[in-house]
Amino acid sequence: MAVAGPAVFLHTRVTDMRKGFDGLSGIVREAFGADPADGSLFLFVNRRRDRLKILHFDGTGFWLYYKRLEVGTVGEQAKTIDEWKLAYNALLQQAFRRRPAASA
After folding, report:
1. Number of domains the chain contains
2. What's the domain range around 79?
3. Which among 4, 34, 61, 83 could disulfide-bond with 78, CB atoms 3.0 to 4.6 Å apart, if both were Cys?
4. Does the reported pTM lie above 0.85?
């Protein structure tokens, strides 16, 4: 049985990456008409699409994930909305994949 994950919203307009919890929550309310504390993942990218922020509420507080790509851009080969979704889905899977603990 497949378990559904949280809804994912992509803000396709350029986002000022200096925005924090409050600024991004404002974008969520204005652009999506959504409640930023509903458990969904809200994705934001900068103009060059080499930086990504994800706003997420886990029930106890907000998380703000920030990724800077060292090579390439997010969705650089994407030409359709489905291709964009695949690119962001791959990035999300990479971001939330459990990393092995470093050995001391």
Report:
1. 1
2. 8-95
3. 83
4. no
